[in-house]
Amino acid sequence: MSKKIVIMGAGESGTGTAILARKKGFEVFLTDNGKIKDKYRKELKKYDIPYEEGKHTESKILEADLVVKSPGIPETAPMIKKLRELGIHIISEIEFAGRYNKAKTICITGSNGKTTTTMLIYFMLQKAGYNVGLAGNVGRSFSLQVAEENFDWYVIELSSFQLDGMYDFKADIAILLNITTDHLDRYEYKMQNYIDSKFKIIQNQTDKEYFIYDKDDPIICKEIKKRKINSVCLPFAWEDPIGNGAGTEGENITINWNKNTFTMSIFDIAIQGKHNCYNSMAAGLSGMVLKIRNEKIRESLTDFRGVEHRLERFIKVHGIEFINDSKATNINATWYALESIHHPIVWIVGGKDKGNDYSELKDLVSEKVKAIVCLGLDNRKIIKAYKNVVPEIVETKSMKDAVRSAYYLAKDNDIVLLSPSCASFDLFENYEDRGRQFKEAVREL
User: Fold this and answer.
1) What pLDDT is stored for residue 76 in this prediction?
2) Most-buried pick from 202, 284, 408, 421 (CB within 10 A)?
3) Does one domain contain both 162 and 263?
4) Closest CA to 102 of 137, 68, 140, 153
5) Domain with 221 in it: what CATH number?
């Protein structure tokens, strides 16, 4: 008798899971509380997968032997609580796909820099001739690729929400870039819960696997001292590397692995900024572990062009430069953005707050920001934090108004920076939608 699997959420990951489950002989039912996009509906019909949209039918969901839920559905959702009470196992798409995956995996997590580092490693492996797939928060559904492709390696970006639903999954190379305050609304406002989630990246690893991490991150270093880590540890830091790992020597980054050394100037790295040096060190370390030739690592770090919506220098209008950093959904990401800009800034900020402490940016804002344009349904925290720091603060409720307001507040050689520090769900579908609307509004000026 086939097992019943219920998939909650019909986006990229949910639809891919449904297809893989169908191919593996499960009795599949997919449910989505919202409207399913046409491209996913077509896929479900093609594979004859029963589904519903606009509701969650409790009786059908509670029949499940196994539930795979979208990372966007919180543990506090009434249906999830009910499933937990009944002892029905709930896992993530990555965990489900991992049960059938035969390829090796490089898994990347962190509060910031995940997408850039993931794309950089994927770019490097492609350049080196690897048969490689891209999955997780970027690329196509991991499940769909396991169902339909035959890759030797996957580079997988993992959010804490995806890691929460992972139990038996094991990364061959695990990368932890940093841990800063983020998503605390999903973790009972307890930082340790969020830290524990991030450290699931190394669960089940043995001394045959690798753990690449930021030695300069105080939270990571404190946590490592509390844990028994079985994997081969490879740190990167802003200092001379001692033994295996990566670091900086003067104006160069240096990577040591198994008596091999790689060195290149930080000024030759395509994506500039201290945070991108860290990302490049993490990527370079993974390349060294895979025995990719130094020339290919160098080419990759030199040629990579960055990620859309992440500090994307977009266009100049009448001497004013517009930068799209819509992917900055927390305070630390915005800190990197502000720190890397050396002209007066008109800052577009706001959205769905995730427990932000805006005081962490106060010094940088005081030094660099000439005006703030709030873009969100509730801007009280932002206004309270900066009303005595920045002379001009305006509120807007649409991207067009925000861009227009910022344009009028800026002068020649100023920067208009969209770096929201918040999730996008109050006014936009997601951060990509927010970034695209920003670029469209700028083009219309």
Assistant:
1) 83
2) 284
3) yes
4) 153
5) 3.40.1190.10
DSSP string, 357-423: -GGGGHHHHHHHEEEEEEESS--HHHHHHHTTT-SEEEEESSHHHHHHHHHHH--TT-EEEE--SSB
What residue type is 292 in one-letter code?
Answer: I
φ, ψ at 36 (rounded to 5°): -85, 135
Cα end-to-end distance, the chain, whole Å: 62
Give the Cα separation of 86 and 415 in Å (integer).
Answer: 54
pLDDT of 404 over the 70 cut: yes
**Nearest of 116, 14, 17 to residue 72 by alpha carbon:** 14
Instruction: Please report the pLDDT score of residue 439 as a whole number.
Output: 95
Q: Hey, what amino acid is at 340?
A: S
Instruction: Give the Cα separation of 210 and 324 in Å (integer).
Output: 34
Q: Token match 């030739």: residue? A: 293
Task: Point out the domain boundary residue: 31, 65, 91.
Answer: 91
99 and 87, same domain (yes or no): no
pTM: 0.77
- Alpha carbon distance 279, 411 (integer Å): 33
- Strands of 49-149 (E only): list them: 51-53, 66-69, 89-91, 104-109, 132-136
Sequence-separated (6 or more) residues with CB below 8 Å from residue 222: none
Among 349, 351, 352, 373, smallest CA distance to 361 is for: 349
Cβ atoms within 10 Å of 148's Cβ, excluding its own = 13
Mean pLDDT in residue range 210-222: 95
∠ at Cα 400 (398, 404), nearest 5°?
120
**Residue range 117-129, pLDDT digits in tens:** 999 999 999 999 9
Which long-range contacts (C-beta less than 8 Å, at least 24 apart) are formed by 234-237?
234/210, 234/285, 234/289, 236/212, 236/278, 236/281, 236/282, 236/285
Mean pLDDT value across the chain: 91
Number of domains the chain is built from: 3
Strands 252-257 and 260-265: antiparallel
Give the span between the Cα atoms of 386 and 393, in whole angstroms: 8
The range of the structural domain enclosing residue 73 comes to 4-91
Sign of torsion over alpha carbons 242, 244, 245, 248: positive
